[in-house]
Amino acid sequence: MTAPVDIRLHSTRPALDARPLEKRVGLIILATDHTTEPDFRRMVASDRIGVYVARIPYANPTTPENLRKMQPSLTAGAALILPDEPLDAICYSCTSASVVIGDAEIEAAVQAAKPGVPVVTPPMAGVRGLKALGARTISILTPYTVETSRPMAGYFAAHGFKIASFSCLGFDDDREMARIAPATLVDLAREATDAQADALFVSCTALRAALAVVGMKEAIGRPVVTSNQATAWNCLRLCGDDEPRAEFGRLMTLPLGQ
């Protein structure tokens, strides 16, 4: 037998920083999500801002009924992110579900676990982004079916936008949406953008659209706002980070509007 190791307890505890990282962004994402974590790692996470993720149950197909079923899981998902510690922002990363459930209902569910935390949803971040860019007339591109796209049209119209054109791709599985190549999205953006539109909104956090923003903008000659780009921008600004990130589009150079 070897002799027991003599373990010495240090006489004093080291001083502690207030936080491991200065700012904290929480993400509630779908169990099936392939895209939001990599996008937030590229666009938000840094040596100053930490991104902390919880996944909640979700089962395809992507229909309004299935999207609505996530609402009861939102409070529990928020509670799992750094329990009993405050966050600087929290994002529920599903555009279509946010439209179906409603921004106010999502905020209430999240704040039941994280009182007072600013809550970001992709469609509301999209509205803020489009307004920051001065857009009034927009084109919209989604990967969804017509049934799932219809509430999205109503949402943006209710927020004061004129919709010049609305195109959807007919997918009902978010895992397949994530497999659409960014280069393909550039071609789709060109086809989907009306000549009268001030900007294009590309919906869905599953799409790798943040990687295609610059290419889409060059293809259509006007600003592009995507779901993950808009939520990343909104969360960065809530953390006091105003650094321009032009590689992810013009929106990422602007201050947060109302």
Relevant terms:
4-stranded parallel beta sheet, 11 helices, Rossmann fold, single chain, Arylmalonate decarboxylase, MaiA/AMDase, alpha/beta, Iso_Racemase_Enz_sf
Explain how this protein is built.
With 258 residues, the protein is of the alpha/beta class. The protein has two domains: 116 residues, Rossmann fold, CATH 3.40.50; 103 residues, Rossmann fold, CATH 3.40.50.12500. Helix content is 36%, strand content 16%. The strands form two sheets. Strands 2-1-3-4 form a four-stranded parallel beta sheet, with helices on both faces. Helix 10 links the parallel strand 7 and strand 8. Helix 1 packs across helix 11 and helix 6 packs across helix 11. The mean pLDDT is 96. InterPro entries: Ectoine_EutA, Iso_Racemase_Enz_sf, MaiA/AMDase. Pfam families: Amdase. This is Arylmalonate decarboxylase.
Report the total helices: 11
The general outline is: globular
Structural class: alpha/beta
What's the N-to-C terminus distance? Answer: 70 Å
Q: In angstroms, what is the radius of gyration?
A: 20 Å
The H-and-E topology, N to C, reads as EHEHHEHHEHEHEHHEHEH
Indicate the low-confidence ranges by residue numbers.
Answer: none
Number of strands: 8
Mean pLDDT: 96
CATH architecture of the largest domain: 3-Layer(aba) Sandwich
CATH classification class of the largest domain: Alpha Beta
Strand content: 15-25%
- As a percent range, the share of helical residues equals 25-40%
Strand order of the largest sheet: 2-1-3-4
Largest sheet: 4 strands, parallel
Domain count, please report it. 2
